[in-house]
Amino acid sequence: MKEKKLFSVDDCENLSNSEIRDLYKKYVNPAIEQLFNSFDLGHEVIDYSEGVWIYTKDNKKILDVTGGIGVLTHGHNHPRILKTRINFQNKKKMEVNKTIFSPYTAVLSHNISQLLPETLSYSFFCNSGAEAVEGAIKLAYKYFQGTRQFILHSDIAFHGKLLGSGTITASKEVDFKFPSISNTTKFEYNNIDSITEQVEKHRKSDGTSNVYAIIIETFSASYLRSCDNDFLKQLKSLCTQNGILLIFDEIYTGWYKTGNRFNFLDSEVIPDILTTSKSLGGGKASISAYISTGDVLKKAYGDIKSATLHTTTYNGFAEECATAIEAINIMEEENYHEKSLNIEKITKNRCKKLLEKFDSQILEYRGKGSLHGIYFKTDSGFGKILSLIPFSMTRDKKFLSKIISASISNWLFKNYKILVLFSTTENSGILFAPSLIINEKEINYFFDSLEETLEHGIWKIVSKFASKQFSSSLRD
């Protein structure tokens, strides 16, 4: 019988890049290993991270402008967040609170209610954004005791990848259909006529509405598009007239990502249920929440029989709640609102100058707060690249858009040690979505590097990257 080998935590820190990749191929997913290996970053081993910087084992210093895909509003390893978690552990505090009162759940719920409109007062804490969305859907459905059957979502929605949240996600990046929950309907984003049409379509025989909820991102982090205030007011009025619950998803945008504490606070519209996650955990805790009005919570779960209908093993986990308490206090005390607006001001100014200088290469830029995208033009010249790549790779309808974005992203890492995300939701582009602690010098370093990159010409950069991928595919 083969002897089993178990690695220790210390062993993790001594693995080489090739050893890590080999473990991925054997025990994680060989396709993930292949994907990561396509980029220069895939050949590095990370040592540690701090602020907006990542440090490799061979002493490279990398500027991270990804914001941890929404998680690292505070940056990597914020000292106050670390101190909170270490103190919690040193004091041997109790983590699981399933049958006793938790001061951490109580205080976190209180603090969140103090920072939101008065009606949004009841919180439930779970682990991921998708879980919060699923909890919000269940809450809205239970509110009507199963007497209404439909939930409406937008045509550019991203609410998660679980079966329920995935059903009301309309991401164009996902081209595989999983089983879905029933009775979901799409409407056109920021189009009140489209929603009105769907509401009218889903009426019962007695004329009352059969829609229990409408869920929407008031700012789409995937598409960097906003709902306008008039639309939101009309949407709220439509919901009120038909007794429909309104859910705002601010999983990504919440906690100052778009300037205000929550994006919906730029309007006068208050939802019945709000979802949040990512920044809430301070970059260290896996925590999310849905927050509802008292009327909704009490009618759905406000009796002894129903109080525990929606719980999870880890909901309200004490160390995660303690971390979130500190994360919120940091954002309030250190004026993250001002930080976000300052990032927006500098970024829009630099993007405007980029567009003026490289109008033949840049299609547009858009964004708000700390979430921005720079999108590139494509023309027939890029079709030549397709001849360099195996046919199996080019069957992807978004292949050209993906390879342009990937090429520029990889170029920025290889030549300037900048980690940046790229987007292919609509057009080819890269995202500038840094932690809110980034300073002006670091922002300008990113844009100076991008400017130098575009001076090389996108065609040349893409050709080099495509040639590398072709050579790699031949070796494999």
Task: Give a structural overview.
The chain is of the alpha/beta class and 476 residues long. The protein folds into two domains: 38-67 and 336-475, Alpha-Beta Complex (Aspartate Aminotransferase, domain 1); 79-333, Aspartate Aminotransferase, domain 2 (3-Layer(aba) Sandwich). The protein has helices spanning 9-12, 17-28, 30-37, 79-90, 103-114, 129-143, 163-167, 192-201, 229-242, 294-301, 318-333, 336-357, 383-386, 391-394, 399-416, 440-456, 458-475; strands at 46-50, 53-56, 61-64, 120-126, 150-154, 184-187, 211-216, 219-220, 225-226, 245-250, 273-276, 288-293, 362-368, 371-376, 418-419, 421-423, 429-432. The strands form four sheets. The protein has a seven-stranded mixed β-sheet with strand order 4-12-11-10-7-5-6, with helices on both faces. A four-stranded mixed β-sheet has the order 1-2-3-15. Strands 13-14-17-16 form a four-stranded antiparallel β-sheet, with helices on one face. A hairpin with a 5-residue loop joins strand 16 and strand 17 (429-432). Helix 2 packs antiparallel against helix 3. The radius of gyration is 24 Å and the shape is globular. The two termini are 32 Å apart.
Strand content: 15-25%
**Number of strand segments:** 17
The residue-averaged pLDDT reads: 92
Tell me roughly what share of residues is in helical segments.
Answer: 40-55%
Regions with little confidence, pLDDT below 50 for 5+ residues: none
- Rg (C-alpha, Å): 24 Å
The first-level CATH class of the largest domain is given as Alpha Beta
Task: Determine the N-to-C terminus distance.
Answer: 32 Å
Major sheet description: 7 strands, mixed
Task: Indicate the structural class.
Answer: alpha/beta
